[in-house]
Amino acid sequence: MKWKAPGSKHADAAVGYLLRAGIDGGGNLASARRSAERALAATEDPEAAIDRIITTHTSIAAAGGLVTGLGGFLTMPVALSANVLGFHVLATRMVAAIAAARGHDITHEGVRTAVLLTLTGNDSTKVLSKVGIGVDGVAAFALQSVSPAALMLVNKAVAFRLFAQLGQKGLARFGRVVPVVGGLLGGALDGYLMHRIAEHARAQFPPAPKALLPGPSTHFDASADGHPL
Fold first, then answer.
1. d(CA 205, CA 101)
2. Cβ distance 34 to 94 under 8 Å?
3. Suppose 22 and one of 83, 89, 151, 166 were both cysteines; which one would form an S-S bond, judging by CB atoms 3.0 to 4.6 Å apart?
4. Helices H, strands E: what count in the chain?
């Protein structure tokens, strides 16, 4: 099947879904903030907590693992398989959890855009340049002073870049169209890609001035959380 680039409407839909499901959570997927709180509650070292976040998400990705119970997969106006979209939701959640663990406010629109931008890896500078934004330093801080209209342009550019990357590599590579063998290779590839994204997240989200530290405000009973992931 020939790759067809998505339109603006599709890009907007994809971005909106990644932000809602990946950062805010949904179905049986807890929010990125809650994922960070779980990790911080398990260790006194924020960096060790981030290691836990990365290990958890990389393991789920390698197992081919994000649940399809998030809802919305079948209604998305984008020609992506559930596991492709699931991978990017999981990656978005991991990056946002890393950001939260280092004290960033992931409800801030600039930080949320920086989370999406991290998914593009080494292409992030190209994405910003394409929409006329020059960032000298860390995007997580720089984008907090960018106008809402400019952030919308960045979000859309991120979506187009992700779609382009999928088109270049071939949807079959991600879509598990080859039973068993394709699934095994796809799982290993997803784990590898998730780890690469994690490294970009570490670089893009250094500790915020007021770091989120373990304590009464972040501790909770995970068994009573209601979200298995």
1. 10
2. no
3. 89
4. 10, 0
Give the model's pLDDT for residue 132.
Answer: 80
The four Cα atoms 109, 115, 121, 126 give a dihedral, to 10 degrees, of: 0
Q: Rounded to an integer, what distance in angstroms lies between the CA atom of residue 134 and that of residue 157? A: 14
Mapped onto helix, strand or coil, the DSSP state of residue 147 is coil
Q: When comparing pLDDT for 125 and 24, which is higher?
A: 24
d(CA 80, CA 86): 10
Evaluate if residue 101 carries a pLDDT over 80.
yes
What DSSP state is assigned to residue 136? S
What is the rounded CA–CA span in Å between residue 218 and residue 45?
13
pLDDT for res 109: 92
Q: How many CB atoms lie within 10 A of CB 176?
A: 20
User: Per 3-state DSSP, what percentage of the chain is helix, strand, and coil (rounded to 5)?
Assistant: 65, 0, 35
* Cβ contact 55:61 at 8 Å: no
Query: Is the Cβ–Cβ distance between 61 and 190 less than 8 Å?
Result: yes
Dist CA 110 CA 15 (whole Å): 14
Q: What is the pLDDT at residue 137?
A: 57
Q: Which helix (H) or strand (E) holds 167?
A: helix 148-169
| Burial degree of 210 (CB within 10 A; 0-12, 13-18, 19+) | exposed
Cα(22)–Cα(144) distance, rounded to whole angstroms?
20
